[in-house]
Structure formats: structure tokens, C-alpha cells
Write a structure and sequence with these properties.
By secondary structure, the chain is mainly α. The chain has helices spanning 2-17, 25-40, 45-64, 70-80, 83-98, 102-108, 122-151, 153-169, 176-179, 181-205, 213-223, 232-243, 271-302, and strands spanning 250-253, 256-259.
Length: 303
């Protein structure tokens, strides 16, 4: 009961306030992880695994100190959720594109993803935004709630540690190809179920943005596995089907170029589709919060 109340209270707090401008707990974790990286770094998978293990166990241990009390669980839930901030970034991108300010949209895109924005036009910026909103709906909302429902405080903070480490070191660059391997694989494992749950919740919520659950499920089943990521494709394919758009194409990350397969059968996204994607993302996050609390309540009654 206390964990369920904490999850609902934390999700409500995130919906009302979003992330703080300064002093975010996840940023503090990132600074601590960066300091540890400087001490442990080596071009070795073993060193990277030790680094990731220490960071995740430390965060999970901090979550265990909550002992399932409502207040600490609510605070942890608020700290790890990012659905409101994700929606704000999506709205900012939409406003810039609708105003015809491509330069402002390019400057804003790094808040959402690591794609190189310099060569992107308005249509490609809209596609990048919809894809990022879809993928991050799992990372920022569904996945932390899933692990919170399953493991309480340790699940909430442990998941966010895994996801943050993947963003920090889980790259295919020469520096992190080995050292970041464990963090990247841990993130794949931690998001496997939540990404598929995100896809299914997107199917259920499709009518809220004028979409068809049948079409969203069809595209999810057909295209979800085509994406090079084992998890992001499920989210993006479901969003493509629900919104009636086509995602995928050429993505540039610095000096690396990736050719993503097409997801969906519709037209390319437009700025107004960002509004619909944000609305869909918020609906999926709300559904995930209700589901997480319900699962935790059922678990408590079973015990």
C-alpha cells in the first residue's frame, strides 16, 4: 500500500512540477559517476562492468534505505520520472517549427537526442522529435514505474542509474566501445519488458490521438523488430501506427551515419504530429502509473 501510494504521489508531483531547474538528483548521480569513471576508466569490459556495478548497486542501496515508506518512495519516483520534461521539450520543438525557426529547433534538439541537428530540415527535425518522444516515453515514464512496481525504491533508483550510465558511457565510440559495453547491455535488459509494455499501452491509448488500436498493433507487430535497437523499435513502431505516420530514415550521429528502416505506412511527421505524440506519450505515462499502482496493490493484497 505504501509503495503504491508513493508511486502515485511521485507521478503526480512530476506531472505538476516536472524536473527542477537546478539540483536535480539524477544530475548529482551523474557527477558522482563521472568522478568514479575517472578513477576506474580503462579500455576494458571488466573495468566497465565493475564501474557500472558499483554505480547501480550504490543507487539501489540508497533506494533500499526508503524501506518502502510512502514519502521516500514518492520522492524517488519524482526524481526518476521525466515525462513532464519530455513533454515540455516536445512542445518547445513544435513551437519553433511552427514559427519557421529551424535554427532554434536545431539548437533545441540535443535536449531530446544525440542526433546531429546541423543538416536537418524542418521535416527531419519533426521526425527526430516524434521518434525521441516515442522512445523516451519508455525510458522517462514506463520503465521507472515498471521497476518501481516490481522492486520499490531500489527498482526506481537502480533503473535510473542504469539508464543514466547508458547515456553517459554506452556509446560505440573508441573510448567507450569496451568500457561502456556493460552499461549498454544492462540498459537493453532493463528496458526489454518496459519497451514492449510501452508499445502495448500505446496501442490502447491510440484513440486519444485519433488513431486505430488495430493499426497501431499491426505496425508494432510488423515493424517493431526492424529497428537496430532491441527496445526503441517497439516504442517507435507503435507510435508510428497510432499517429498514422512513417518514421525511420537516415540518422547522423557525429561522424557515424545510420540507415534506419521505415516504421509505419503513413506520411512523414509534421509539426502538429509532435503535439499528438506528446499527448500520446502523456496518456501512456498516466496509464503506466495507474497500472504500476494497481499491480503493487494487488501484490500487497496477495501477501
Amino acid at each position: 500500500m505504501t509503495i503504491a501510494r508513493g508511486l502515485v504521489a511521485g507521478a503526480t508531483l512530476d506531472a505538476l512540477t516536472g524536473d527542477p531547474r537546478r539540483g536535480h538528483p539524477v544530475a548529482a548521480f551523474g557527477r558522482a559517476a563521472a568522478a568514479l569513471e575517472r578513477r576506474l576508466y580503462g579500455d576494458s569490459k571488466v573495468r566497465g562492468a565493475v564501474f557500472a556495478g558499483l554505480c547501480v548497486l550504490g543507487a539501489a542501496g540508497l533506494g533500499a534505505a526508503s524501506r518502502g515508506r510512502t514519502g521516500p518512495v514518492a520522492a524517488a519516483t519524482w526524481a526518476v520520472l521525466g515525462g513532464t520534461s519530455l513533454a515540455r521539450e516536445g512542445r518547445a520543438m513544435r513551437a519553433a517549427l511552427e514559427a519557421g525557426d529551424v535554427e532554434a529547433a536545431r539548437a533545441r534538439l540535443p535536449h531530446l537526442c544525440g542526433r546531429d541537428p546541423d543538416s536537418l530540415d524542418a521535416k527531419e527535425l519533426a521526425r527526430a522529435t516524434v521518434e525521441s518522444v516515442a522512445e523516451n516515453t519508455s525510458d522517462a515514464a514506463v520503465a521507472p514505474l515498471f521497476w518501481g512496481a516490481l522492486l520499490g525504491g531500489p527498482g526506481l533508483l537502480g533503473y535510473r542509474a542504469v539508464n543514466t550510465l547508458d547515456a553517459m558511457v554506452g556509446h560505440r565510440s573508441p573510448r567507450y566501445a569496451n568500457f561502456g559495453w556493460a552499461a549498454a547491455r544492462a540498459d537493453d535488459v532493463a528496458n526489454w519488458v518496459p519497451a514492449r509494455l510501452t508499445g502495448l499501452l500505446t496501442v490502447v491509448c491510440a484513440p486519444l490521438v485519433g488513431g486505430s488500436p488495430r493499426e497501431a498493433y499491426r505496425v508494432l507487430r510488423r515493424d517493431g523488430a526492424a529497428h537496430p535497437s532491441p527496445n526503441a523499435g517497439r516504442c517507435e513502431a507503435a507510435f508510428a501506427g497510432a499517429l498514422g505516420v512513417r518514421l525511420g530514415g537516415v540518422n547522423v550521429y557525429g561522424d557515424r551515419v545510420e540507415h534506419r528502416p521505415a516504421l509505419g505506412d503513413g506520411r512523414p511527421p509534421e509539426p502538429d504530429d509532435i503535439r499528438r505524440a506528446v499527448r500520446l506519450s502523456r496518456a501512456v505515462g498516466l496509464a503506466a502509473a495507474g497500472l504500476a499502482a494497481g499491480v503493487r496493490l494487488a501484490f500487497g493484497r496477495g501477501r
